[in-house]
Automatic annotation (TrEMBL):
This is UDP-glucose 4-epimerase. Pfam families: GDP_Man_Dehyd (PF16363). Pathway: Carbohydrate metabolism; galactose metabolism. It catalyses: UDP-alpha-D-glucose = UDP-alpha-D-galactose. Its EC number is 5.1.3.2.
Length: 352
């Protein structure tokens, strides 16, 4: 069975992707320095799959440590590269930390890919590369705009590095997956999102407000030119996102890929406003959310959602979860974190 190296495998999408890969017959390795994640999440992966995942606690910014993994595993067939810093606001305050971490790690990885001729490489990119698009619905051909943050620039530069690398290393095929807004938790509620500190993202902010960890949710802007004045996003269940990664590996494994460096949008194709997301949460959770209309958040895109035709036709990818399941699993995970002391201890360990 093909061996897949998952960097950032202790993270939110990384851990869900480990589960999906294992359930689809792949052998997996996890590389994660746990600077922004908790290795305890791998216990949840094991509870779901029955498989213990080999974890290398390595910083990809160390070429020697990264190279040693490839020397020990010369049979790595594919890499799914999640490991990166991703807090938009932090990247504005600390741009050099973001450029160094996100780009040096990628370059070290690609040096190993070049030396060991790894055939498949899947990159975790983001709808952030589109900036504030002229049209609300974006296709992969929509020209990227200036990024709204250094974090966004690291994703744009990452795509450019991979495109140029692939041209000079045709033995490696590359797929760039542009995520929209991943939310929710695995249906087993054994794994989910573990935000560090006060969550900046909407759905964990909703669930932490509902459970009482946060006093009130502020809606960042209600005067936008949208149907209800709040921003529109393409929220997509993390399990739909993770399964697309397995399908991308299978697409490469079966040689169906077109070669070169392919870009695919991973969104549902549905735009949902902040207020609509809040009302969906209230409906499925039965919780009345304490929220208020606040000022706009600098850097926010007004409205964006995906045209996902390419991923559906090339990968055979189908969306399984709707907005209600996204909110339902997110809420059940938040409740579990509060009630399950062992898990809670894991979160505590991560926060301190
Ligand atoms: C969504 C909407 C906020 C919190 C994120 C990542 C980006 C990419 C996509 C990874 C916005 C509003 C939020 C709150 C609010 N992910 N909001 N009150 O900004 O679309 O981008 O997902 O690659 O890197 O940053 O997601 O969840 O932060 O915000 O009103 O307390 O919710 O203003 O309109 P965003 P988000």
């Amino acid at each position: 069975m093909a061996k897949i190296l998952v960097t950032g495998g202790c993270g939110y999408i990384g851990s869900h992707t480990l589960v999906d890969l294992i359930e689809n017959g792949y052998d997996v390795l996890c590389v994660d320095n746990n600077s922004r994640s908790n290795a305890g999440i791998l216990q949840g992966v094991e509870r779901i799959t029955g498989k213990k995942v080999k974890h290398y606690k390595v910083d990809l910014c160390s070429f020697d440590d990264t190279h040693a993994i490839f020397q020990e595993n010369t049979d790595i067939a594919g890499i799914i590269h999640f490991a990166a810093y991703k807090a938009v606001g932090e990247s504005v305050e600390k741009p050099l930390m973001y450029f160094e971490n996100n780009l040096v790690s990628l370059i070290n990885l690609l040096k190993c890919v070049q030396e060991f001729q790894t055939p498949w490489f899947v990159f975790s990119s983001s709808c952030t590369v589109y900036g504030n698009p002229d049209e609300q619905m974006v296709t992969e051909e929509t020209p990227p705009k200036p990024a709204a943050s250094p974090y966004g620039y690291t994703k744009q530069m990452g795509e450019q590095i991979l495109s140029e690398f692939q041209k000079s290393n045709p033995a490696t095929s590359v797929i760039l997956l542009r995520y929209f807004n991943p939310v929710g938790a695995h249906p087993s509620i054994e794994i989910g999102e573990l935000p560090i500190g006060k969550p900046m993202n909407l759905v964990p902010a909703i669930t932490q407000t509902a459970i009482g960890k946060l006093p009130q949710l502020s809606v960042h802007g209600s005067d936008y030119p949208t149907r209800d004045g709040s921003c529109i996003r393409d929220y997509i269940h993390v399990s739909d996102i993770s399964h697309a990664h397995t399908l991308a590996i299978r697409y490469l494994e079966e040689g169906r890929n077109l070669g070169g460096c392919e870009v695919l949008n991973l969104g549902t194709g549905n735009g949902v406003s902040v207020l609509e997301a809040i009302h969906a949460f209230e409906k499925v959770s039965g919780q009345k959310l304490n929220y208020s209309m606040g000022p706009r958040r600098p850097g926010d895109v007004v409205a964006i959602y995906a045209n996902n035709d390419r991923a559906r036709t090339r990968l055979g990818w189908e969306i399984k979860y709707g907005l209600d399941e996204m909110m339902d699993t997110a809420w059940k995970w938040e409740v579990r974190l509060k009630e399950d002391k062992q898990l809670f201890a894991m979160v505590d360990a991560q926060l301190n």
